[in-house]
Amino acid sequence: MRHLLSTADLTRDDALLILDTAAELARISDRPMKKLPTLRGRTVVNLFFEDSTRTRISFEAAAKRLSADVINFSAKGSSVSKGESLKDTALTLQAMGADAVVIRHGASGAPHRLANAGWIESTVINAGDGTHEHPTQALLDAFTLRRHLRDGEGDLTGVRVTIVGDVLHSRVARSNVLLLHTLGADVTLCAPPTLLPVGVDTWPCTVSYDLDAAIADADAVMMLRVQLERMNAAYFPSAAEYSRRYGLDAQRMATLAPHTIVMHPGPMNRGMEIAADVADSERSVIVEQVSNGVSVRMAVMYLLLGGAESGIGGIA
Amino acid sequence: MSIVIRNVRPYGEDAVDLVVKHGVIIDIVPAGTGTANAEYRFDGEVVLPGLVDLHTHLREPGREDAETIRSGTQAAALGGFTCVHAMANTEPVADTAGDVELVWRKGAEAGYCDVRPVGAVTAGLRGERLAELGAMADSAAQVRVFSDDGKCVSDALLMRRALEYVKAFDGVVAQHSQEPRLTDGAQMNEGAMSARLGLAGWPAVAEEAIIARDVLLAEHVGSRLHVCHLSTAGSVEIIRWAKARGIDVTAEATPHHLALTEDLVATYDPVFKVNPPLRTEADVEALRAALADGTIDIVATDHAPHPREAKDCEWAAAAMGMLGLETALSVVIETMVDTGRLTWREVAERMSTAPARIGRVADQGRPIAVGEPANLCIVDPRTDWVVDPARLASRSRNTPFAARTMRGRVVATFLRGQATVLNGVLQ
Ligand SMILES: [Zn+2]
Description:
The complex is a heterodimer of chains A (about 325) and B (about 425). Chain A is α/β, with parallel strands linked by helices.
């Protein structure tokens, strides 16, 4: 595999290789000498058409710890809506000799176009495209789940994960459903029917409209960000009603099993989908998700760029 | 000066010679026996009445970078067409007598096929008030088809008035059926595939709800209605119901909706982005069955040229639309003739006779018979060809069939006895 575009492209073995590599790299990161020479002389471009400081910083830290040269290319504000800019930018990056392009784009499928349109020869890593996918977020979520619920080893067979919120517009949900299923987890999506895509019945997961039932025997509850603007498009009547029916507050948290963890891909709307008491509780692994993100992104770049013999799936 | 078009098979039947004088077929005799001042020899290929397209975007005036009346009608001739209906969504919009006369005159000057302008239903396609429909009907262009295509006449009252008003000159409203609120920002067919790809859905109901409303309006006011580019199995059912009820409705399907499914969207290649969107396998099958049984009356191309930059980008930023003129007949041969679903006579009905009748074009879509105009399409249904976008006559390259092997090649086209295409080459 040359690119990471969708978690649908990852076999169970591919995914485990990434998670195991990430675990190995995390151990190294705990040592005082954090840098590895693996990608010395290679160029990684962070191409961000949308603002996402947290994701960009995570990729940047990952690339630097592998000794890559990092170029941050913020295309936001350029004429993205005109359409030419993705191609023109790609041609520029090609001329600069980028070995990998980490792309965040508001249009679903933009990383696929970048990888397949013949504009560029670099490895393409999807850092979130429109309402499609966010594969490294799903990988870091799987890494976090495995660490807490499976002692950091093997797959996620039998782990029950409930994902709550705006599934319709969520690239995190799409990537997670596919990846967690591949790793053996049982995924439940919970949302008001307006925020589930038509066709969700074909996904490898269970669907529920009832949050209390959906979290009753979950091992992990992942809350998705809900944008207030959705209210204006009649997806739900009011923030208060959303919060009452689909928000995770202290009262609901108290009904969870003792071992159940609470996750959120960030940034959070405290008081909307998640109460501050919950976000800051013992169960919350939200801060840890951020640090795991660096390890997982290091693993992805290491495996995709590390050398001729080490593409994902290339190491047995 | 007379010519003989030697050894062709009308509607795929017995080989004959067609003798043509002053643009009219004056004799039909057994192959090899016709005499005239000049001859064009063929090899037993199928001859059909020249094809008539009810739905063509020629882009001129305004977007000559994408297509001109000249390049578009050249593409039409190469596809076997002798008449196209030029849609009104140009810049400026064709919504006055002057606008439609300009298009009509430029088509006549180019001379590759007859150009019948379509007039806008509402001024500027804005959906607010009727355009001067009567003035366009009375103009030299003699407009009979009115459409806001590209946009839906979504206001029910305005649609009712348009349906009523055009009765005065035997016009027809050709509706682009798309409920705008249900398709705000829509990118592809809504269903399992859009859920997976994270692209905003264009639900079948947004088309079907408008068609259902419009057939009931047409019934209520006793008008005729034409439905553009019908794309879903549900729409077929509504048209079938309306026809059984005696409502005066006709419907078209495009070649791409007969041939392609939404699975192609998974490439995120915008060459497959079109409005209405590519649908499912079940929809494609319903369209083919409906075209075979006559529920869908015609094939219309919705030929929609776009410059390269409009497709050389990410999906959401790309324009909607596909080229169609040069590949339409091949698609129909592959999907409908080779599968035994249409005879050649039925192909002639769906691609020439019926579209000419709907558009009220008197001298097109006529049978191959003595005394009829020699508007002819000669096709070799056994020869395959590969689509090379760079070699199309259209100024644009956005064909969804690039590099695909197509069935059947148009070898010659005659417009009133004049060859516009010979040996597959523009004359
Ligand atoms: Zn249309």
